[in-house]
Amino acid sequence: MNFSFILIGSTHSFVDDFLKQEEIIKSVKPEFVLSEELENLKLDTEDKVKEILEKKFISDMTSFDEVEKLIKLCFEKKIKLIGIDFHNFGFDENLQRKIKNQKELIKEDEERLNKIVEEREKLHLSKILEYKSKTKRPLVIILGCWHLRENSLLRKKLKNYKIIAPLDENGGVLFEPNNSEIKYGEIISNEE
């Protein structure tokens, strides 16, 4: 079965996410890889890739180390790597500081965060649809596992997708490590 969308759940480092990303990218051979962690960067030319590899900086919220292997793999395979999120995920300095330092959020922070997450998911969806119209090959999309939860905007709006992510014993996407061995599984949309 040919899928339009291959969604890879990123754990944001509770397992080595790159190993699964590399395996899928090499087997699917997409024209585009879309990544939440690249935020608003578009690495679609050799010059742009070389520039980011030289700068070694993505943003205040994404460390270069988290995406370096992915950037190099896509460059080597001549795959365009496209960020599908806001710069710093749309967080102001106050939210950035609290999230990075894992500080407790007050009610107003929580409300702002929820609003930003909603906007981010709408942006993810619009970027995915934009790039789907630019290629006949499947899109490989790398997003935090939380964005692939059962009632997420993407799972409601996209058709003909396969999610590859760490799953719990009930087949649900894992958002954080549990005490058992982490195993990847697949969730397939049942609509064409």
Index terms:
globular, seven-stranded mixed beta sheet, 192 residues, 6 helices, single chain, alpha/beta
Question: In words, what does this structure look like?
Answer:
By secondary structure, the chain is α/β, with parallel strands linked by helices. 39% of the residues lie in helices and 18% in strands. The chain has a seven-stranded mixed beta sheet, sandwiched between helices. The model has no long low-confidence stretch (mean pLDDT 93).
Measured by DSSP, the beta-strand proportion falls in 15-25%
What value does the average pLDDT take?
93
Rg, alpha carbons = 16 Å
- What's the helix count? 6
The number of E-state strands comes to: 7
Q: Provide the spatial order of strands within the biggest beta sheet.
A: 3-4-2-5-1-6-7
Largest sheet: 7 strands, mixed
The structure class reads alpha/beta
Shape descriptor reads globular
Give the SSE string. EHEEHHEHHEHEE
The percent range for helix content is: 25-40%
Give the N-terminus to C-terminus distance in angstroms.
10 Å
In the predicted model, the low-confidence regions spanning at least 5 consecutive residues are none
Short description:
The chain has 192 residues and is α/β, with parallel strands linked by helices.
List the helices and strands and how they pair.
Layout: E1 5-10, H1 17-28, E2 32-35, E3 42-43, H2 46-55, H3 64-76, E4 80-83, H4 93-100, H5 107-132, E5 139-144, H6 153-157, E6 161-167, E7 183-188
Parallel strand pairs: 1-5, 1-6, 2-4, 2-5
Antiparallel strand pairs: 3-4, 6-7
Helix pairs in contact: 1-3
